[in-house]
Predict the structure of NAD(P)-binding domain-containing protein.
Amino acid sequence: MKIGIIGAGNIGGNLTRRLTALGHEVAVANSRGPHTLTALAEETGAKPVTASDAAKGAQVVVVTVPLKAVPDLPVGFLDGVAEGAAVIDTGNYYPQQRDGRIAAIEDGLPESRWTEQQIGHPVIKAFNGTYAQDILDRGHPQGTRGRQALPVAGDDPRAKQVVRDLIDELGFDTVDSGGLDDSWRQQPGTPVYGSRGDVDDIAKALAEASPERTAEWRA
Ligand SMILES: NC(=O)c1ccc[n+]([C@@H]2O[C@H](COP(=O)([O-])OP(=O)(O)OC[C@H]3O[C@@H](n4cnc5c(N)ncnc54)[C@H](OP(=O)(O)O)[C@@H]3O)[C@@H](O)[C@H]2O)c1
Protein backbone atom coordinates (compact mmCIF):
# COMPACT_ATOMS: atom_id res chain seq x y z
CA MET A 1 0.00 0.00 0.00
CA LYS A 2 0.92 3.62 -0.34
CA ILE A 3 1.36 4.96 3.20
CA GLY A 4 2.09 8.50 4.39
CA ILE A 5 3.61 8.98 7.83
CA ILE A 6 3.57 12.44 9.37
CA GLY A 7 5.97 12.49 12.27
CA ALA A 8 9.29 10.64 12.18
CA GLY A 9 9.99 10.31 15.91
CA ASN A 10 9.71 7.25 18.14
CA ILE A 11 6.50 5.91 16.64
CA GLY A 12 6.73 7.36 13.12
CA GLY A 13 10.33 6.21 12.72
CA ASN A 14 9.62 2.63 13.81
CA LEU A 15 6.46 2.38 11.70
CA THR A 16 8.54 3.60 8.76
CA ARG A 17 11.08 0.83 9.45
CA ARG A 18 8.55 -1.99 9.73
CA LEU A 19 6.17 -0.90 6.97
CA THR A 20 8.97 -0.49 4.42
CA ALA A 21 10.33 -3.90 5.45
CA LEU A 22 6.90 -5.36 4.67
CA GLY A 23 7.11 -3.88 1.18
CA HIS A 24 4.83 -0.88 1.52
CA GLU A 25 5.59 2.35 -0.29
CA VAL A 26 6.17 4.84 2.53
CA ALA A 27 6.49 8.63 2.39
CA VAL A 28 7.60 10.19 5.68
CA ALA A 29 7.62 13.78 6.94
CA ASN A 30 8.68 15.73 10.01
CA SER A 31 8.52 19.42 10.96
CA ARG A 32 12.05 20.37 9.85
CA GLY A 33 11.83 19.15 6.29
CA PRO A 34 12.88 16.20 4.12
CA HIS A 35 16.59 17.16 4.14
CA THR A 36 16.65 16.15 7.84
CA LEU A 37 15.30 12.67 7.06
CA THR A 38 18.09 11.38 4.81
CA ALA A 39 19.40 8.89 7.40
CA LEU A 40 15.95 7.33 7.89
CA ALA A 41 15.38 7.34 4.12
CA GLU A 42 18.71 5.59 3.46
CA GLU A 43 18.07 3.06 6.19
CA THR A 44 14.53 2.16 5.09
CA GLY A 45 13.98 3.20 1.49
CA ALA A 46 11.11 5.48 2.55
CA LYS A 47 10.69 8.71 0.61
CA PRO A 48 11.37 11.85 2.69
CA VAL A 49 8.78 14.52 1.89
CA THR A 50 7.18 17.64 3.33
CA ALA A 51 4.19 17.30 5.65
CA SER A 52 2.08 18.85 2.87
CA ASP A 53 3.08 16.05 0.48
CA ALA A 54 3.13 13.00 2.78
CA ALA A 55 -0.54 12.10 2.41
CA LYS A 56 -0.78 12.58 -1.38
CA GLY A 57 -2.30 9.46 -2.94
CA ALA A 58 -1.95 7.50 0.30
CA GLN A 59 -4.37 4.70 1.22
CA VAL A 60 -3.21 4.93 4.81
CA VAL A 61 -1.97 8.05 6.59
CA VAL A 62 -0.43 7.96 10.06
CA VAL A 63 -0.54 11.19 12.06
CA THR A 64 2.06 10.70 14.77
CA VAL A 65 3.14 14.10 16.05
CA PRO A 66 2.83 15.46 19.60
CA LEU A 67 -0.81 16.42 20.23
CA LYS A 68 0.06 20.10 20.66
CA ALA A 69 1.55 20.08 17.12
CA VAL A 70 -1.62 18.79 15.44
CA PRO A 71 -3.05 22.31 14.88
CA ASP A 72 0.25 23.26 13.17
CA LEU A 73 -0.07 20.62 10.43
CA PRO A 74 -0.36 22.28 7.01
CA VAL A 75 -3.87 23.35 5.99
CA GLY A 76 -5.31 20.81 3.52
CA PHE A 77 -2.56 18.22 4.04
CA LEU A 78 -5.15 15.45 3.63
CA ASP A 79 -6.77 16.87 0.50
CA GLY A 80 -4.96 14.51 -1.88
CA VAL A 81 -5.47 11.20 -0.05
CA ALA A 82 -6.77 8.18 -1.97
CA GLU A 83 -10.52 7.63 -1.96
CA GLY A 84 -11.57 5.99 1.35
CA ALA A 85 -8.14 6.42 2.94
CA ALA A 86 -7.70 5.41 6.57
CA VAL A 87 -6.11 8.09 8.76
CA ILE A 88 -4.50 6.67 11.91
CA ASP A 89 -4.11 8.86 14.99
CA THR A 90 -1.47 7.61 17.45
CA GLY A 91 -1.73 10.66 19.69
CA ASN A 92 -2.03 11.10 23.45
CA TYR A 93 -2.76 14.16 25.56
CA TYR A 94 0.13 14.81 27.98
CA PRO A 95 -0.97 18.13 29.47
CA GLN A 96 1.63 18.32 32.24
CA GLN A 97 4.68 17.05 30.40
CA ARG A 98 4.24 18.27 26.85
CA ASP A 99 0.97 19.53 25.43
CA GLY A 100 -0.30 22.19 27.84
CA ARG A 101 -4.00 22.69 28.45
CA ILE A 102 -6.50 21.79 25.74
CA ALA A 103 -9.86 22.93 27.09
CA ALA A 104 -12.12 20.69 24.98
CA ILE A 105 -10.26 17.56 26.13
CA GLU A 106 -10.27 18.73 29.73
CA ASP A 107 -14.04 19.13 29.33
CA GLY A 108 -14.40 15.50 28.26
CA LEU A 109 -13.96 15.35 24.48
CA PRO A 110 -12.12 12.12 23.57
CA GLU A 111 -8.58 13.01 22.49
CA SER A 112 -8.96 11.52 19.00
CA ARG A 113 -12.25 13.36 18.47
CA TRP A 114 -10.31 16.58 19.10
CA THR A 115 -7.61 15.55 16.62
CA GLU A 116 -10.25 14.64 14.05
CA GLN A 117 -11.77 18.11 14.40
CA GLN A 118 -8.37 19.75 14.02
CA ILE A 119 -7.44 17.88 10.84
CA GLY A 120 -10.94 17.78 9.32
CA HIS A 121 -10.92 14.03 8.56
CA PRO A 122 -12.21 10.98 10.46
CA VAL A 123 -9.48 9.08 12.29
CA ILE A 124 -8.86 5.57 13.54
CA LYS A 125 -7.19 5.52 16.95
CA ALA A 126 -4.41 2.94 17.13
CA PHE A 127 -0.88 2.47 18.53
CA ASN A 128 -1.46 5.19 21.14
CA GLY A 129 -0.78 2.82 24.04
CA THR A 130 1.98 0.83 22.34
CA TYR A 131 5.62 1.37 23.28
CA ALA A 132 7.46 2.50 20.17
CA GLN A 133 10.18 -0.12 20.63
CA ASP A 134 7.54 -2.88 20.76
CA ILE A 135 6.65 -2.12 17.14
CA LEU A 136 10.15 -3.36 16.22
CA ASP A 137 10.56 -6.10 18.80
CA ARG A 138 7.27 -7.74 19.70
CA GLY A 139 5.50 -8.59 16.45
CA HIS A 140 4.75 -12.30 15.94
CA PRO A 141 2.97 -14.35 13.28
CA GLN A 142 -0.79 -14.79 13.46
CA GLY A 143 -1.74 -17.63 15.79
CA THR A 144 1.28 -17.23 18.10
CA ARG A 145 0.19 -18.02 21.66
CA GLY A 146 -0.09 -14.82 23.77
CA ARG A 147 0.38 -12.60 20.71
CA GLN A 148 0.27 -8.96 21.83
CA ALA A 149 -2.98 -7.18 20.90
CA LEU A 150 -3.71 -3.51 20.23
CA PRO A 151 -7.06 -1.76 20.74
CA VAL A 152 -8.40 0.01 17.66
CA ALA A 153 -11.22 2.59 17.79
CA GLY A 154 -13.00 4.42 15.00
CA ASP A 155 -16.32 5.10 13.36
CA ASP A 156 -15.69 3.95 9.78
CA PRO A 157 -15.81 0.12 9.69
CA ARG A 158 -13.96 -0.14 6.37
CA ALA A 159 -11.12 2.13 7.44
CA LYS A 160 -10.94 0.33 10.77
CA GLN A 161 -10.60 -3.02 9.00
CA VAL A 162 -7.79 -1.68 6.81
CA VAL A 163 -5.94 -0.59 9.95
CA ARG A 164 -6.58 -3.89 11.75
CA ASP A 165 -5.26 -5.83 8.75
CA LEU A 166 -2.15 -3.66 8.65
CA ILE A 167 -1.53 -4.20 12.38
CA ASP A 168 -1.89 -7.94 11.81
CA GLU A 169 0.77 -7.67 9.10
CA LEU A 170 3.00 -5.90 11.62
CA GLY A 171 2.64 -8.90 13.91
CA PHE A 172 -0.06 -7.98 16.41
CA ASP A 173 -3.65 -8.97 17.11
CA THR A 174 -6.29 -6.26 17.46
CA VAL A 175 -9.40 -5.69 19.56
CA ASP A 176 -12.21 -3.50 18.24
CA SER A 177 -12.60 -0.93 21.01
CA GLY A 178 -15.67 0.71 19.51
CA GLY A 179 -16.32 4.08 17.93
CA LEU A 180 -14.36 7.25 18.67
CA ASP A 181 -16.90 8.26 21.32
CA ASP A 182 -15.68 5.19 23.26
CA SER A 183 -12.00 5.81 22.56
CA TRP A 184 -11.44 7.26 26.05
CA ARG A 185 -11.20 3.60 27.04
CA GLN A 186 -7.68 3.48 25.57
CA GLN A 187 -6.42 6.92 26.57
CA PRO A 188 -3.50 7.49 28.98
CA GLY A 189 -4.30 6.43 32.54
CA THR A 190 -6.64 3.59 31.54
CA PRO A 191 -5.90 -0.08 32.29
CA VAL A 192 -5.20 -0.85 28.62
CA TYR A 193 -2.70 1.98 28.14
CA GLY A 194 0.76 0.43 27.85
CA SER A 195 -0.57 -3.13 28.18
CA ARG A 196 1.29 -5.90 26.37
CA GLY A 197 -1.58 -8.32 26.86
CA ASP A 198 -3.25 -10.62 24.37
CA VAL A 199 -6.77 -10.25 22.94
CA ASP A 200 -8.47 -11.44 26.15
CA ASP A 201 -6.37 -9.16 28.37
CA ILE A 202 -7.05 -6.16 26.15
CA ALA A 203 -10.81 -6.80 26.00
CA LYS A 204 -10.90 -7.09 29.80
CA ALA A 205 -8.85 -3.93 30.31
CA LEU A 206 -11.08 -1.95 27.94
CA ALA A 207 -14.18 -3.11 29.84
CA GLU A 208 -12.65 -1.99 33.15
CA ALA A 209 -11.84 1.56 32.01
CA SER A 210 -13.35 4.59 33.72
CA PRO A 211 -14.25 7.74 31.80
CA GLU A 212 -12.99 9.89 34.64
CA ARG A 213 -9.70 11.66 33.84
CA THR A 214 -7.42 11.41 36.87
CA ALA A 215 -5.41 14.36 38.21
CA GLU A 216 -2.20 13.02 36.66
CA TRP A 217 -3.74 13.36 33.21
CA ARG A 218 -5.22 16.83 33.68
CA ALA A 219 -3.58 20.20 33.05
N1 LIG B 1 6.87 7.31 22.16
C1 LIG B 1 6.01 6.32 22.31
O1 LIG B 1 6.40 5.19 22.70
C2 LIG B 1 4.56 6.54 22.00
C3 LIG B 1 3.72 5.44 22.07
C4 LIG B 1 2.39 5.57 21.68
C5 LIG B 1 1.91 6.80 21.29
N2 LIG B 1 2.72 7.89 21.28
C6 LIG B 1 2.10 9.17 20.88
O2 LIG B 1 2.33 9.35 19.48
C7 LIG B 1 2.60 10.74 19.20
C8 LIG B 1 4.00 10.83 18.64
O3 LIG B 1 4.89 10.39 19.65
P1 LIG B 1 6.46 10.17 19.42
O4 LIG B 1 6.99 9.68 20.71
O5 LIG B 1 6.68 9.38 18.17
O6 LIG B 1 6.91 11.68 19.20
P2 LIG B 1 8.38 12.26 18.93
O7 LIG B 1 9.41 11.17 19.06
O8 LIG B 1 8.51 13.49 19.75
O9 LIG B 1 8.34 12.68 17.39
C9 LIG B 1 7.45 13.64 16.93
C10 LIG B 1 7.61 13.79 15.45
O10 LIG B 1 6.60 14.70 15.00
C11 LIG B 1 7.21 15.63 14.12
N3 LIG B 1 6.44 16.88 14.10
C12 LIG B 1 6.21 17.74 15.11
N4 LIG B 1 5.48 18.78 14.68
C13 LIG B 1 5.24 18.56 13.36
C14 LIG B 1 4.58 19.28 12.35
N5 LIG B 1 3.95 20.45 12.62
N6 LIG B 1 4.57 18.78 11.10
C15 LIG B 1 5.18 17.61 10.82
N7 LIG B 1 5.82 16.87 11.74
C16 LIG B 1 5.86 17.34 12.99
C17 LIG B 1 8.59 15.82 14.68
O11 LIG B 1 9.41 16.39 13.69
P3 LIG B 1 10.74 17.24 14.10
O12 LIG B 1 11.62 16.30 14.85
O13 LIG B 1 11.29 17.68 12.77
O14 LIG B 1 10.24 18.38 14.94
C18 LIG B 1 8.97 14.38 15.01
O15 LIG B 1 9.41 13.70 13.86
C19 LIG B 1 2.41 11.47 20.53
O16 LIG B 1 1.10 11.96 20.65
C20 LIG B 1 2.66 10.38 21.56
O17 LIG B 1 2.02 10.66 22.79
C21 LIG B 1 4.04 7.77 21.60
User: Anything to note?
Assistant: The domain at 2-217 is CATH 3.40.50.720 (Rossmann fold). Residues 6-12, 29-32, 51, 64-67, 69, 72-73, 90-92, 127-128, 130-132 surround NAP (CB under 6 Å). The chain has a mean pLDDT of 98.
